[in-house]
Specification:
By secondary structure, the protein is α+β, with helices and mostly antiparallel strands. It folds into three domains: 2-125, no CATH class; 140-278, Jelly Rolls; 284-356, Phage tail protein beta-alpha-beta fold (3-Layer(bab) Sandwich), CATH 3.55.50.30. The chain contains ten helices and 19 strands. Helix 1 (2-13) packs parallel to helix 4 (44-58). Residues 79-98, 100-113 and 119-135 have low confidence and may be disordered.
Length: 357
């Protein structure tokens, strides 16, 4: 049992993904390693011992002592079967020739050299295949749209994503794990390929939306008070997790149903929604329903990627209703101009617009 625990510890401290998570955690890596720990609770002690070890190794003011480094290298060497003469001969060469040089490097080199060198030595000394204990390093793709830009993304499994302006989608280059996990910041419409044995999970802050094959819209813009998850086809489960990743609440949705997550109260509410309005942005349709001046300007800035500068005071009774299908911004401003008696002009690049009252 003690040998198994040491193997778990060694696998973790030599795993690039684990090291990167300890040094630079993010939502995706937090989700992965917390899930790993939940599935292997028997290894909790080794997990946190490895985490503390990596933190100490990379800490500028608390680096490992010579004794600790010798102990680490010794444990790696001892992992080989001592009954194997060929491997024993390899360890002997390592001890006689490589170790002094390595120790000198450990005395003077930067900490990252320690990790890289240790990993390389480990790979040289053992020909064992990596087990499921050592999590595979995940390569991520990140698509980020500025204001004024919308894009279409095809995921590795063939699922399609419409990504709105000021939105970011993060996904693995390959879906190699059982769960197809992606992260969203902003708004996107997902058309997911059905796979029974590989659920698709979208992580947006505290919420996770799990599907097997369906189409739905998520609006999680940070400047909004609510996060909306709207189901068009199929069936999804929306779950809310606490800070310690314990699932506190979950809701199932059928087509035409929507979950609204209130950020202040942190409560989820299920209700019906208007599909046409929710998906208008995806079809290039801009809708205003009794919108005040500030919201009108904010929407135009994000939709068209421009900046507005206001001179004078807009009318207090400003309330705009209108639907615009793939319209140019000038066509919208021209129509509003006659209603509210304003003037507008562009700079030479067309990205800065001044409105005067």
């Amino acid at each position: 049992m003690a040998e198994q625990e040491q193997n778990i510890f060694n696998h973790l401290i030599l795993n690039k993904g684990f090291i990167e998570w300890v040094r630079n955690p993010n939502e995706a890596s937090d989700f992965f390693w917390e899930k790993w720990l939940k599935e292997k609770p028997v290894h909790t002690q080794e997990f946190y011992r490895a985490k503390a070890f990596v933190e100490k190794m990379w800490h500028e003011d608390d680096r490992l002592s010579h004794e600790e480094l010798d102990d680490l290298l010794g444990k790696i060497i001892q992992k080989e079967d001592t009954s194997d003469l060929k491997k024993h001969h390899t360890r002997k060469i390592f001890s006689a020739n490589v170790a002094p040089t390595l120790k000198k490097l450990l005395n003077y080199a930067a900490v990252f050299v320690i990790v890289i060198t240790t990993v390389l030595l480990y790979d040289t000394l053992t020909q064992e295949n990596t087990t499921d204990v050592a999590a595979e390093v995940v390569e991520w793709e990140i698509i980020s749209n500025p204001k004024g830009k919308r894009s279409k993304v095809t995921l590795p499994d063939g699922s399609l994503v419409d990504l709105n302006y000021e939105s970011t989608l993060k996904y693995p280059k390959q879906f190699n794990s059982k769960t197809r996990l992606v992260e969203l910041h902003g708004e996107a419409f997902f058309d997911v390929v059905h796979r029974d044995d590989h659920p698709f999970v979208v992580k947006t802050g505290m919420l996770e939306t799990e599907v097997h094959g369906t189409s739905f819209n998520i609006n999680s813009f940070p400047y909004l008070d609510e996060l909306d998850i709207s189901l068009v086809t199929g069936k999804v489960k929306v779950r809310k997790a606490s800070e310690d990743m314990q699932v506190m609440d979950s809701i199932f949705l059928n087509p035409g149903e929507q979950v609204q997550f209130h950020k202040v109260s942190q409560k989820m509410v299920k209700n019906q929604f208007d599909i046409e309005s929710a998906l208008a942005w995806k079809n290039g349709t801009l809708i205003f329903k009794e919108v005040g001046f500030d919201d009108f300007i904010s929407k135009l800035e994000r939709w068209y990627g421009v900046n507005f500068y206001i001179e004078g005071t807009p009318p207090k009774d400003w309330s705009l209703n209108g639907t615009y299908q793939n319209e140019k911004i000038e066509d919208i401003l021209r129509g509003v101009k006659f209603i509210y008696g304003m003037k507008y002009n562009y700079d030479h690049e067309g990205k800065n617009i001044t409105i005067s009252f």
